[in-house]
Structures are given as C-alpha cells and as structure tokens.
Amino acid sequence: MIVKRKTRAKEKSDGVAEAAPGVYLKIGDVARMVGISPSMLRAWEKLGLTRPARTRSSYRMYTRDDIRLLRRARYLRRVRGLNAPAIVDQLRSEGVLGRNQTTPDGYVGRKLRGLRQARGKSLAQVARAVGTSIGFISALERSQSSASVGTLRRIARFYHTNILDFFNASQRQQFQVRPAERKKLQAGPGVSMELLAWGNTVMEPHLFRIAAGAGSGESYSHEGEEFLFVQRGEFEISIQGKSYRLRAGDSFYFHSKTPHQWRNPGKGECVVLWINTPPTF
Predict the structure, then answer these.
(1) Which residues contact 9 (CB under 8 A, 6 or more apart)?
(2) Cα–Cα distance between 53 and 132 in angstroms, integer?
C-alpha cells in the first residue's frame, strides 16, 4: 500500500501528514519492493541503516530515499556477501550513509523544534510553507531523518535564518580548524557538509562530500556569491537551464540569486570546496 495524501481524520488517528505532497510507504510494501523480509528491515533499522518516520500509533513509514538506500544494502548483502555491520561500514565509506544518520547527536532536530516553537508555528504550518509533509518535518525534529540542501534552504528561509544556524557552531572564532574539529551536517542521503570556519566571518567555507548519484534535490537560491573548486570526482551544476560538468581541478563562480541545482554524476565520491559570501546560505 502506498500512502499519499491522508485526510484530517486519518491524521488525528495515526499522526501521518494531512495532504502530504510526499509519498510514504509501509514496512510490508517496502519489504516487497526491496526484496527482503520485514524482520530484516527491523533488524537493519536497529543498526541505523534506516530511521523511518513513525506515526502516533508507531507504524513505520518509509520514503523513496529509504528505498534507494535499502536496495543498495540488499545488493551488498546478496551480491557482495557482506553482513549487516559490514554493510553499514561500506555505505558510510560511499557517503550514502552519513554519520548523522547512524549516530545523530540531535542538535539539528532540537534546533528546528526550537525555531518552530519560538515562532509559535505548528508542524502543519511549517510543512505547508516548505512544501513537504508533517511526518517529514516531525522526523527532522526527532533527528530520525535528514533533509536535502534544497529543503534545508527552504526551511531556513521560512525561519528567516540560514543553513549555518543548523551547524553546532556557537563557539568563538578560531584561526586554525583541524579535520576532527570541523562542524558537520548531513544534508540528505549521500551529502555531507563540513564547515571549515565559523564565528565573525564574511565567508562561509564548506567541504562538500557527495556520494555517486546524490545531489541538492530541487533548485534553490539565496543572497550572495559562490565559488567552488572540485577536489575529487565529478560534479554537475545547472544554472538557468544550462548544465556545467566539472572534474577534479575545475573551479566555478556564480551569483547565488541565480537558481541552481547540482549533483554528482560520477561513479565515486565527489569532494568540493564550496565558499559562500556573505554567509547567507
């Protein structure tokens, strides 16, 4: 059974989003689509492979992104012969399964919930404003899901803030930042953002790690200017209907107000140094 737009009556009974534009699937349907048993899905969930949203009556609800990740896990199990812990390690190395998905610290969820409550908004109001479902916003606030860069940008705009506020970067500015000290944010499946400097800066430098096939989701725009340098892999960015394909060593500059959308079209991880100025991303 595919669960799409639910009625208000159904929302009251199980907590699934009313009139949700997204698609959620129940565990039995996902098991059939992926080709594994529901018990295997539950076991993989305990290991952190997926974190499905839950209705108030505790039904698991999966997204299309969950299905893509589970199919990759099934391939690794059946074709490569990996056990569950090895599958988790492999998906982490591929960038498909981010650290925040397996060991979330809850910061982003608490931040989003705090922003919503401070403004006196309901889950339904936020969901309508950013064009997603109540269940998805609820899962974000409970740190059971991560949003794409495009969705994070829409949420930030709704709260009159920027994505920088979703990093736990409240400490004072420091001159040197070692790799282990970087602030990290999982921006949807396969996309990890590492903040390279913070504090009273006029630039917002990130290191993006993008798994094969992953990307920004929908296009987005904001104030400022952007510079990026591809350190490894392949990168494709679309601006004003034109696509530009970049490889390691290529750089790119554009005005942030221009709607842009990007992805990794290659077969391996892509690493991009990405700088926004001013920090309004």
Answers:
(1) none
(2) 14
Are residues 116 and 89 both part of a single domain?
Answer: no
Which region among 7-21, 88-102, 148-162, 184-198 has the lowest average model confidence (pLDDT)?
7-21
Asked if residue 260 belongs to a domain, the reply is yes
- Tell me the torsion sign for CA atoms 149, 151, 154, 156: negative
The boundaries of the domain holding residue 52 are: 2-95
Tokens 């001159």, located at residue? 175
The first and second tokens of residue 259, run together, are 């709607």
Check whether residue 113 and residue 194 sit in a common domain.
no
Regarding whether 178 and 140 lie in a shared domain, the answer is no
Rg of the chain over CA atoms, in angstroms?
Answer: 19
For helices 84-94 and 64-78, angle between their N-to-C axes, nearest 10 degrees? 120
Please tell me the distance from the alpha carbon of residue 152 to that of residue 222, in angstroms, as a whole number: 12
pTM of the model: 0.60
**At residue 204, what is the residue type?**
E
What pLDDT, in 10s, does the model give residues 48-59?
A: 677 676 665 667
| Residue 144 near residue 259 (C-beta atoms within 8 A) | no
pLDDT band at 261 (very low <50, low <70, confident <90, very high): very high
Do 156 and 113 share a structural domain?
yes
Sequence-ordered strand ranges (E) for 90-233: 183-186, 191-195, 204-210, 225-232
Amino acid identity, position 163:
I
Q: Is 204 found in the same domain as 258?
A: yes
- In DSSP terms, 244 is beta-bridged to 237
Question: Cα–Cα distance between 132 and 8 in angstroms, integer?
Answer: 16
What's the pLDDT at 54? Answer: 63
Flag whether 102 is in a domain: no
Name the nearest CA neighbour of 208 among 186, 192, 228.
Answer: 192
